Structure to design on (449 residues):
């Protein structure tokens, strides 16, 4: 299999790179990026919030691709990738929502609001929690792989519909007041800190997936 | 032609079984009646509050009865060990999906008609004027609901805790359909022209096309791999 000793070493390197990136990201977010004038230090949550949101979408995109590949090739590796990526995606979506909430409390004065973007991310979260639940509930691994591949495709194709509908639902109801991000021009130090963090979290996601892939492979070998 | 015929046989079989036993339809009729009671208890006698909440209540009723009805799509096959019969049926398996979907659609439309009549009766509403627009919205929404519901019912038929899992999987996926139908129903009941909610209707059509396409393309995989 392609996940042998050499790959294990690669995974370890990936882990250290991710750790390094996260430390660099923290340093940049806290020391180099300037303090935002109106929001103060709370704004620095953005360096966690935006990267995790990006990684969550990336993860679900990969679930879609792996699901389609699985249905065509029936390759067990593709199914494992879908599972690993969905698990990581749910974790990162959860972190995104939690971080957004922590930012929202001091900024808006509330933990949660039924804003378009919050709602659609919440729907996404619940949808992929269902995906993990379905996998958990099926004992036969081959059947679990098939059903989850179908659900992975349904969920991913549903995402644009959810976004659009929730957006219309909110904007036609009341104009968005707080969260309309106009053409925001970030100072370059902030942008740099954000990009470093995006890179670091993408590496972290890749590391999680690689680790989970090898544990799933061993799990399957032990059962077989 | 062969495809349509096989789909028709599937739908005819389901409708005949339902016509003879009336299991699902009878239970759903009483369920609808009970939901009307619950809505009344929850909202109280205030008419204005009811009118404001009406589109949401209507679709809440549709989706709750849909969860019960659609979840039973493959119960007959499972309980009577006919699942292998479905798998062994010759030809394209998506015909089975289309047939099941057609049967579900008819069943749900029947339940929704009952619902509308009950609403009209118990809440003294006049839905006749809004009927053409309402029929369009209800048709589009029900197709979206039934398309994913039929697929997921097949998926959860052999899963632990399926009664629980079916709504948990279906509800988040149906968020666009629910938002669209509630908004469009609201407009129709207020007497607005359909053009005012054209974007919602387009979204519903798009959702229907996507859901039915996924169902047709993946049902084969769900049935037997």
């Amino acid at each position: 299999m392609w996940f042998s000793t050499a790959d294990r070493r690669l995974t370890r390197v990936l882990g250290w790179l991710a750790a390094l990136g996260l430390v660099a990201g923290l340093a940049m977010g806290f020391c180099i990026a300037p303090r935002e004038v109106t929001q103060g230090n709370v704004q620095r949550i953005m360096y966690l919030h935006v990267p995790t949101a990006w990684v969550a979408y990336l993860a679900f995109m990969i679930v879609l691709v792996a699901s389609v590949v699985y249905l065509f090739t029936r390759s067990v590796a593709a199914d494992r990738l879908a599972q690993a990526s969905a698990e990581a995606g749910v974790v990162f979506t959860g972190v995104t929502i939690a971080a957004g909430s922590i930012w929202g409390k001091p900024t808006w004065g509330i933990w949660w609001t039924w804003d378009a973007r919050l709602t659609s991310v919440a729907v996404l979260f619940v949808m992929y929690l269902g995906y993990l639940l379905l996998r958990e509930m099926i004992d036969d691994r081959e059947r679990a792989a098939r059903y989850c591949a179908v659900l992975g495709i349904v969920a991913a194709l549903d995402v644009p519909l959810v976004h659009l509908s929730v957006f219309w639902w909110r904007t036609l109801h009341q104009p968005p007041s707080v969260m309309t991000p106009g053409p925001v021009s970030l100072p370059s130090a902030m942008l740099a800190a954000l990009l470093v963090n995006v890179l670091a979290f993408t590496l972290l996601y890749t590391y999680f997936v690689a680790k989970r892939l090898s544990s799933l492979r061993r799990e399957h070998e032990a059962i077989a | 032609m062969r495809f349509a015929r096989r789909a028709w046989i599937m739908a005819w079989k389901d409708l005949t079984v339902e016509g003879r036993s009336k299991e699902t339809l009878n239970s759903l009729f009483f369920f609808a009646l009970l939901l009307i009671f619950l809505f009344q208890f929850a909202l109280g006698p205030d008419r204005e509050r009811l009118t404001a909440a009406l589109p949401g209540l209507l679709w809440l009723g549709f989706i709750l009865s849909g969860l019960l009805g659609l979840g039973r799509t493959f119960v007959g096959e499972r309980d009577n060990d006919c699942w292998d019969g479905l798998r062994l049926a010759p030809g394209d398996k998506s015909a089975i999906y289309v047939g099941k979907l057609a049967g579900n659609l008819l069943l749900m439309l029947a339940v929704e008609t009952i619902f509308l009549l009950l609403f009209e009766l118990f809440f003294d509403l006049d839905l006749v004027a809004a009927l053409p627009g309402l029929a369009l919205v209800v048709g589009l929404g029900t197709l979206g609901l039934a398309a994913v519901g039929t697929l997921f019912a097949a998926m959860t038929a052999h899963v632990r805790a399926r009664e629980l899992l079916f709504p948990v999987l279906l509800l988040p996926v149906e968020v666009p359909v629910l938002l669209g139908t509630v908004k469009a129903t609201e407009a129709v009941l207020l007497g607005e022209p359909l053009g005012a909610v054209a974007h919602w209707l387009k979204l519903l059509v798009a959702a229907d096309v996507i859901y039915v396409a996924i169902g047709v393309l993946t049902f084969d995989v769900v049935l037997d791999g």
User: Anything to note?
Assistant: The radius of gyration of chain A is 19 Å. Chain A has six helices and no strands. Chain A has one domain: 5-174+184-223. Confidence is low (pLDDT under 50) at residues 173-179 of chain A.
